Amino acid sequence: MSEKRYVDFHDKIVKLLDAMRLEKNDLVDKAKLDCLWEAGDLFEVVCNYLFLNRINIRFDFGSDVIKKGTKLYRIRDYKDNTDFSNPKEWTPPPNQKQNRANAEGQTALYLGSCETVCYLETHMKPKQQYVLATYECIEDFEVGGFLAYYRQNQLLTLAGIVLNAFLIAPSRGDKNKELFDYLDLHFGHIDLCNLSSIDEIKKTQGIVLPYKFAVLNQKENLYNITNELCKTIRDNYPNGIRYSSCYVPLETPAIVCSYYNIVLYPQGINKVRFVDYKVTTLQMQNSENFSDVNLAKILISTGECSNDKT
Question: Are 256 and 92 in contact (CB under 8 A)?
């Protein structure tokens, strides 16, 4: 994919249909993967995945069980006139706007596995006061995501990395203007030719890719596509979706860690309860240097150095 090549998606679809008629699972699985990767760039892999899902050609990229007793967290801006002790303040927002994993009006609760993830995802500033809520899982429940590692199928694992990278890409907005000022300056104009190297994903596990996808897409386009990506998971895992953070992208197919995001839908929301809250600031040594922008700079530099060395 790192070089320009002729893409014949129709031919791959025809071969997939032929394999399905023969009812040979090994041929079907190979033909599905051929369709997924019949792409001129990595964004086209995302588009192929969504198209295949629309015609009921499905992939399962794994799931995870969130255990009873697990603590999850949420951060909100501190406001003097809000009674944060009222549990109703910690239910999903009413009249919910479109976000990464929900359409406008669709109920969703966004939580993080720890305060650090929530701090970065909400773009808090050093010494900024915020409200940190703790939730507890009251029973085991399963969530989906782009999580699975296929030891015998590298292309399927790489597809999961690409899809997860698009899902977690930052969206341009007022709260992360400083981040996008840096990304725009660093990358300049991103076009599809800048997203054509599968070798980059192999070498770096795609740690730079979410930022490239972010610059490529405007906010409205990004959320429309991430909503559709999430629907492909939600159809099989209605409790919710577990996904990594682009600021702490330690979790990826084959690597599970304690830093992750989770979005819960009504079925999953019923399996967590609000426990408590506190008004606080980030308690960390050298916290003035801990920000989404500085972490993005480190990750991008690391990823680009890895590519240069190889």
Answer: no
Q: Give the separation between CA 217 and CA 200, rounded to whole angstroms.
A: 20
* Tens-binned pLDDT, residue by residue, of the chain (310 aa): 655 567 899 999 999 999 999 999 999 999 999 999 999 999 999 999 999 999 999 999 999 999 999 999 999 999 999 999 999 999 998 889 999 999 999 999 999 999 999 999 999 988 899 999 999 999 999 999 998 888 888 899 999 999 999 999 999 988 899 999 999 999 988 888 888 778 877 777 688 999 999 999 866 688 999 999 999 999 999 999 999 998 886 655 555 667 899 999 999 999 999 999 999 999 887 778 899 999 999 999 988 886 665 5
Radius of gyration of the chain (CA): 20
**What residue type is assigned to position 176 of the chain?**
N
